[in-house]
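1st attempt posting a full record on here, be nice pls
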Amino acid sequence: MGVTVSADLNYRANLWKWGKKANEVMPEMVGLCDLAIGNEEDAEMVFGVKAPETDVTAGKVSADAYVHVCQELNKRMPA
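the predicted structure (as tokens):
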């Protein structure tokens, strides 16, 4: 119908207290979406994709590390 479908990967632990875990449910759901919104922590918790050499708490952030996360997620869920 031409509707753009999006998913917010913001991990909420309280949503996953019953039944399956996020990493068991979200990949299939996000694979059906046109757009996914999230950060490196969400990518790691839901998909197991970690930004290399990144320590946000220490202020070590590299734009290339985030490109890596996006590329890995795109491999798993191509457009």
